[in-house]
Write a structure and sequence with these properties.
Layout: H1 2-21, H2 23-37, E1 43-47, H3 61-64, H4 72-86, E2 116-117, E3 122-123, H5 133-149, E4 158-159, E5 174-175, E6 202-206, H6 208-211, H7 214-217, H8 220-235, H9 237-242, H10 249-255, H11 260-272, E7 276-277, H12 280-284, E8 298-299, H13 308-331, H14 339-342
Helix pairs in contact: 1-13, 4-5, 8-11
Amino acid sequence: MADAREANRRRLRRLTEMDRHGAVGAASAGLKFQHTMHHGPGSIALRTRPFVEASTEGESTLSRLVLPRGVALRFYLLAIFDAQCRLAPGSSWANRRPLSGQRGCWSDFIAIDGAYDGRSRAYMPETKQIRDGGDLRVRQIKSALTTLEGLGPSEALVTVPRDRIGRRLFQEFSLMKETGRGVHQTPDTYSVPTLGQPAEATFTVPSDFFLNGWIQVLNPSEIATWLILQYLSQWAADTHAYRGVYLYGRARVNKFGIKRDAWEDGCQRLCSFGLIHPPHSSVLVPNSRKRYEPYRWQVDNQALHHDAMEVCLRELTIRQRDLERQAVQRSQPNIGPSDEETH
């Protein structure tokens, strides 16, 4: 419980700092401008295998991007969002943006909290040479590109060319399909999914997930959990509408690569944010869930219309108060009844 309390405190600190500087609002404004300018779609299509669901038993690409640090998963999804705003179905991706330095650059689409000094427990001031906010975002993007390229020779989700002495030319990176670079000499460059593909080949994500800040404030584990639930809700649409969808045991680990603790914690946080909820039938009937029966969930895409920062700050603040109160209660000795009360 102490770990949960400290983790929630750190997350609140990061979000509060981002909110103080308007980082999420600025990134969302940049994405909204691009979406409006290019008449972007209402939803973004993602290829299912092996990105979300592994083609064979083993880790999905998505599960490999659930990392404690960095923005690799976030950046890859933002690059796909950008591609589908700009390009028609079937069109191949080409990098049209600099990493920084002008409006609409990649660093405009990323929100971070800044450089934090653990000793003083304070955020370090910006300096022109060392700690500029834009420079910190570029560093995060370069780290993300390194992670995405390092997934493996055929699994890499980006390729980054080198100069003559082997230095990465991050500005010239290329985006790969969700299936990875591939095994051939010519890389499998990203292209926007076309219409008419088999239903299980793709699933969609509402654009509001990107436009209202959710991509910026959810952690990688929550994003992965939410994407899996989005996929399941569309793969089993009738079941989702009536009873909700679930994932547990062997399928969760072997097909999606998500551990039990990460899945359950992700579902609880998403539920507190309003992005998912139990089926209405289980809400109306208390204690209706049988032992060993998995928790079922329904996705609520209407909740994506809300401001993500406002929702997360509110709910995580409430959670922190509850965790602190529970900690105080545990620290108090159990006082039995007095002698007078026993007679």
